[in-house]
Amino acid sequence: MSQISEKSPQHCAKKKLVNISNLQKKLFLTFTTFCSSILLLILIVWFILRPTKPHFSLKEADIYQLVVSGTHLLNSSIQLTLLSTNPNQKVGIYYDDIQVYAAYRSQQITLYSSLPPFYQDHKDTNLLSTLLVAYALPVATSFNYDLGRDQMAGRLVLNIKANGLLRWKVGTWVSGKYRFNVNCVALFVLIGPSAGPLTFKQGTQCVTTI
C-alpha cells in the first residue's frame, strides 16, 4: 500500500519564506563582496600611487601699506604671487577652496583673500596672485612698537599663510576633501628710505601640511 502525503498550506508558506530568505542572503553576500572588491581595488591603487602633497613657494611680495592709525588699528595692502606645483606622476588635484592671508609676529594683518577653485593636472604648475588688504584691523597695542623696532633694524619678517580644501583625482576616481595648510616666510630687507613698495623677490619654499 502506498502512502499519500499531503503538505499543508502552512508548510508551503514556510518553504517559500525559507527560499526568499536564502535569496536575500545571496543577494546581500553578492553586494557585500562587490563593494569590498571595489574598496580593495581603490586602496591598492591608492597605496601604489601614494599621492604626494603639493608644493608651494612664494615667488614675490610687495608691501604697499603697513601703517597703524591711532593706537591699534592697522591698514595694510600686500600684493603677492604664489607658485603651486603638483609633483605627482599620475594624480591630479582639485583645489576647492584656498584662503590666503598675511601675519606678522603671530598676528593676522590682512583679511582673508579667496582664490578661485581650479584643477591641477599631474606635474603641472600654476601661478596664484592675490591682493591682501585690511582697513582699521584691530591689532595688539605693542604692534606699532614691534614694527618700528624691526624697521629700525632694517628687516621685516612676514608669514604668508594659506589654507583650504583639496581632492585627489586618480583616473575617474576622486577622493573626499582634505584640509591643507601652507606657511611661507618672507624676509623683507629695508635699505634706506624708499618711495616705492617694500619688495620681496628672493623666492622661498613654503611648508605644506595635510
From TrEMBL:
Pfam families per record: LEA_2 (PF03168)
UniProt keywords, alphabetically: Membrane, Transmembrane, Transmembrane helix
Entries under InterPro entries matching the protein: LEA_2, NDR1-like
Recorded superkingdom: Eukaryota
Residue ranges of domain Late embryogenesis abundant protein LEA-2 subgroup in the record: 82-184
Protein name (Swiss-Prot/TrEMBL): Late embryogenesis abundant protein, LEA-14
Species this chain originates from: Artemisia annua
Transmembrane feature ranges: 27-49
UniProt key word Transmembrane: yes
Membrane topology, record value: Single-pass membrane protein
Localization annotation: Membrane
Keyword Heme (UniProt): no
GO cellular component: plasma membrane; plasmodesma
Main location: membrane
GO biological process, one term: defense response to other organism
